[in-house]
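Q: I have 353 residues here and want to know how they pack in 3D. Can you give me a structure?
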Amino acid sequence: MQTFYEAGDELRAHGDVLAEAMVARQYNRQKYLWSKYGETGRAKAVRDASYHLDMLADAVAVNEPGLFVDYMAWVKIVFHHRQLPTQSLNASLQCMTEVIEETLPAHYSAIITPSIRAAQDYLPHAPVDVDSFIKDKSKYAHVAREYLSTLLAGDRRAAAHIIDQAITEGASVADIYMDVFQPCQWEVGRLWQMNQISVADEHLFTAGTQFIMSRLYGHIFTGVAGPHRLVATCVGAEMHELGARMVSDLFEMNGWDTHYLGANMPTPDVIAALNKYSPHVLAISATLASHITPTRELILRVRESPRGDSVRILVGGRPFRVAEGLWRHVGADATASDALGALQAAGALLGLS
């Protein structure tokens, strides 16, 4: 596995040079596509090429080509809904292959290029739309849709009232978390991807949901500590913290004594929290492929710590949904695709279910 890490590191070390070379080659071949975008467009193309190479390096480092395939399929949707030429993506990947083979040692390029070929093979068949995450079969789909539209319109008070009304009419807080907050959070990501909302809209929606979640804490925290303890955190520079917060809250609702550390948490502080709280389970959130290596490094440090032998480690986030065996590679004990799955997985690890 070390060879894959080395190949990923080699790719990152030459990222700037490779990105410039990729764009220069593609612009030369497809002048008819790119000349209209000017120098500003070219600068953005170099930036995008750097993103592509970073994602490729992350996938190569853990020998999971599917991570890069998933990323490029995501890019295709982004391009399509911004009227950018999706047919250019395969050409970009071809240029990527060529400049890697010309620049990096052959033993590294031989490890790297299969992930590019996998993406090239899939892209022509990849969809350009994403189905809504709010499903008709959900009991609270109508609440989720009303909440989504209201909060996206900027009316936080009305959105909070929608949640209060649903609880008054019989929905549990867990129902709201799993059938309203969770699908709506995924839905705003989909809407941004399809160019229907802005980054500001997405961030304001998330902030609104965090505020409304905080209003429900009277229903969640009973003041009585349960027998099983959870520490939940976001790895390294991870700033997408709402998912981990939802996991922690759902555990609390189910009788766990929880300690949520938040986003952007340094490894020494995670270790200190484990020593302080002696949790049965550590839940780690990593939403981007770039957070896989920091997750692995955090888990290594945890295993070396005084609590390393006794704590069970649960990981979650998009990379672990895309690459099913990735959780084993980073050294975790289990993974889950959502907050309810995390609760079930933790129970199984401790023999509670």
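Q: Anything worth noting?
A: The beta strands are 229-234, 257-260, 281-285, 312-316, 334-336. The chain has a mean pLDDT of 94.
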